[in-house]
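Sequence in, structure out. Go.
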Amino acid sequence: MASALWGFLLLFSEAHMGNEDNVIEELLREISGLISEYPKAIERRAAVIQATGKDPELVEKLVKAADTMRDSGNLYLTWAKHYAAVAEGNTDASSDEDETEDFDV
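Output:
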């Protein structure tokens, strides 16, 4: 009885880990999309403010914010991809990839 339970737990654990890999990959895709879209949304907002002739200082701040978020998003995504690879068991998860292309930098 105990060995049957142990076998069930091992199979359940393996199935759960495979499912967790899918969750990590799905979250990574979502994060990537959101990180890419966020600076664009800030830029669109800045364009609307500029088009209405309101607060040029705010427009400048928002443009700089979009650049900052694009750069920091690149850094965040690089680390997220690194840890996703580590979670999959890739012990050599260092990345020489340049993620800036993902963000139109």
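Check: Residues 2-51 form the longest helix (50 residues). The mean pLDDT is 81.
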